[in-house]
Write a structure and sequence with these properties.
Blueprint: E1 6-10, E2 13-22, H1 27-44, E3 54-57, E4 67-74, E5 86-90, E6 93-101, H2 108-120, E7 124-125, E8 130-133, E9 146-154
Antiparallel strand pairs: 1-6, 2-4, 2-5, 3-4, 3-8, 6-9, 7-9, 8-9
Length: about 160
């Protein structure tokens, strides 16, 4: 699938989140469980999500390497309870982004395209990448999943 990479200005946003150490084999279940924990915490305080769910990838997770992810849901107010679900500000700024349509297992091509584009244009990665899930895998077929991938970047002056 050909991807169009663009630079956008992402707004900072308040998120409710939980951080998870995971492996390639467990990541799907861990993301599902993480969203379950965040949704339960929001429900306990009657807080409604204010945007699409996302995952921040702090490490490269592959067959040989485990790593940390942060499962997040944007919110309009902070949680008051103290638990493994917390609130923080997700940094905004310039991002190189592309949209993937299809199964999550095929997202690596999107990552490769964006990182190559960043390098080719002289920009620098400035933070961990994010996957923003624009539709629900429980209601659409894998071929119809839409995921926006963002890499925070430092833009090279032209």
């Amino acid at each position: 699938m050909p991807y169009t990479v663009v630079i956008e200005d992402a707004a900072s946003q308040l998120i409710a989140a939980t951080r998870i150490h995971t492996s390639r084999q467990a990541i799907g279940n861990d993301i599902g469980a993480g969203f379950g924990r965040v949704i339960a915490a929001l429900g306990a305080e009657n807080i409604t999500p204010s945007g699409a769910p996302l995952v921040v990838y702090y490490d490269l997770i592959d067959e040989e390497t485990d790593g940390d992810i942060e499962v997040c849901i944007p919110v309009g107010q902070k949680l008051s309870m103290d638990s493994d679900v917390y609130c923080r500000e997700l940094e905004g700024g310039s991002v190189a982004t592309a949209t993937h349509r299809g199964p999550y297992q095929e997202l690596s091509a999107t990552y490769q395209t964006i990182t190559a584009w960043i390098s080719e244009h002289g920009h620098e990665v400035a933070g961990p990448p994010r996957e923003i899930y624009l539709n629900d895998p429980q209601t659409v077929q894998p071929a119809d999943l839409i995921t926006r991938v963002e890499f925070p970047i430092r833009v090279q002056a032209s």
